[in-house]
Amino acid sequence: MFEWVVNPEAWIALATLAALEIVLGIDNIIFISILVGRLPPKQRELARFIGLTLAMVTRLALLFSIVWIMGLVDPLFSVFDMEISGRDIILVGGGLFLIGKATHEIHNSLEGPETDASTLGTAGFGMVLVQIAILDIVFSLDSVITAVGLVDEISIMAIAIVLAVIVMLIAAKPIGDFVDRHPTVKILALAFLIMVGLTLVVEGFDVHVPKGYIYFAMAFSMAVEMLNLRLRGNKERQTPPVKLHQSLREDGQ
Description:
Blueprint: H1 8-36, H2 41-63, H3 66-71, E1 75-79, E2 82-85, H4 86-110, H5 122-150, H6 154-181, H7 183-204, H8 211-238
Antiparallel strand pairs: 1-2
Helix pairs in contact: 1-2, 1-5, 1-6, 1-7, 2-5, 2-6, 4-5, 4-7, 6-7, 7-8
């Protein structure tokens, strides 16, 4: 099982796959950061840890169910001469959920009613975990299919997934705190999630969208926003940025 440890090419494959898993996990980090932002500050760290742990468990569970995963690509039925598989249903359903959720969050942050932080108790915590678990399945499916397509050794895939989640655990809080501090970045992140959701939907209808285009658009938009934040730095000391509604704000201020 671990014969590959003496093969230099296997180590290159491990490094490449781990890097790709980290990139694919950025969507997951953004989604989790925005969802946990709805919770009281004391619950956020636990929710973030549980969410990313669920992501790792889901990825590993799907990885060790490769036969089932590969079976998802088999057509289940046809609609207008288009074959629909289990993978297509998961991608379309997950994409629609992501589009709807991101749109709902944008509305709540700008025009929705203010929510008292004291009301975001256990029920809110459980609901956030349920939503994270649903999207973990969709993001994990994409991640595992990528892993299966790149390497043959299950042990390499598993190690790459664990390494990626460890990096995500380290990066999740700084990213989440940064998103919380800057309202424009939060709205931009939600726009990214809508774009990712749309990509999942069209992928479910067998329209392949090169991931490079998506990541370039996200990176370019974020680079422009970083320049905006830098240029606005001095002015913001005099004029504070707009505050999003409390359901998405960092605390109960």
